[in-house]
Protein 1
Amino acid sequence: MRKALDCRMKELTAQGLGVNIKRADAVTLDDERALWSSNVFNMNTAKGLSYCVFFYKCKTFGLRGNLEPKNLDASQYAVRKDESSNSFVLFNSWNSKTFNGGLEHRRLQPRCIKQYDTDDDRCVFKIFALYLRMIPSYGAFYRKPLESAFAFGKQCVGINTLSRYMKRAYDDAKIDRDNRNIVNHSGRVACCTRLFNDGFDDQMISSRSGHRSNAVRLYKRPSVEQEKAVSHALDVPSDE
């Protein structure tokens, strides 16, 4: 049966079926700036802060977009200081696809990610430090933002609402999503893409994304400048 299936898959591939895989597009730097400038991302309202936390837990801490946020516990985050008194947010990833505590993962170590304070008024450290002060230290991480006050309710955000968080943020900011597959996973793709474009190696990228295989390569997207540089290098040589 495996040989028959393999043969049929090759026949379909030869016909062009299944060769174009729909993948999540990364959130670009221009998109991120637009989300801030439109005030969709902000640290002054519960809804704006909720959007910030959701996006940066994907981009900065490499979390996946759907089930991982739902299963996230507030106790996995903590504000700490190192031996030099530098402040950082510590994230302990003990409940993820690549580490769930089962027999297959018993020899693995869960990710412990530190995100340092960069002294910027709206850096990721300050975003998470503010949010963690506003929710209980244990229990569901994503709490329902209140419209009547700068606060969060006791109820957690439902899975259906979470599943459309990035699309809603783009729509609220009036950012065009035509011909782009912007989904919750786009934040995780942005994590790998930004680090790749800034010259970090696969090991450093995997330390954030949690990939334990070469799958990290599927998440990296070359920048326009990189693609243009490759095109230039392989183009017809000049007369000089």
Protein 2
Amino acid sequence: MGEYRQLGYLPEALVNFMALLGWNPGTEEELFTLDGLIEKFSLGRVQKGGAIFNIERLDWMNGEYIRDMSIDELTEKCVPYLMEDKLIEPAKESRIKNQESRIRNNKFQASFKFQETNEIVTFEWLKKVIALEQERMNKLSEIGELTEFFFKDKLRYSKELLRWKKMSDKEIKDNLDELIKILSSIESFGFDRGKIENILMPVSEKRGKGELLWPLRVALTGRKASPGPFEIMGVLGKEKTLKRLKEARKKI
């Protein structure tokens, strides 16, 4: 059990999964609370045949429990994995011996720093990052890989990744220039998902959604797959967004 918890499986998911290895509830129901298992479990429905350990089913089940968690609790549980992946560390180590426990007890406003840049962020900012990936996670240990681009100063990717289908270099450059111009005009205090989306969507419909939004996504994340660019910009903020777009333009 300890090894699976280390890999990012939740205790409640493991208990639920182990119970269903040799027991049939007699219904199609697969997800139970501990109290629900205690109430419904009976030796009469324990199967005599050998159980089959299906790791894909455990991953699915664990993901369902993750999606059912509050963002506060999920962020608490993700912090140790972000630390283990050397993305963040406590900003004031002397006050944070047991980070998860102290966050839960609200004894102080937790703050962290990026290991790469020493930038200081709050627990509230981390919640925004974790919330973007809550729907995609199956294990807590995946959070570092999924969110790594938020904690980096410079992203590594090839120029070709910025290209949507058969776009020319000039088209990529022109679209990046247009994005920089438009986003620069938005006030920093109003740089949120809703406002950005309202401004950029009409432009993307004119230029072509893929042509505008694909280079934007890659410039922000260095990846093919990620949460939506509007959501990402809302978390990164104006300064980092523009910096990443300008770095992408240098590749053309």
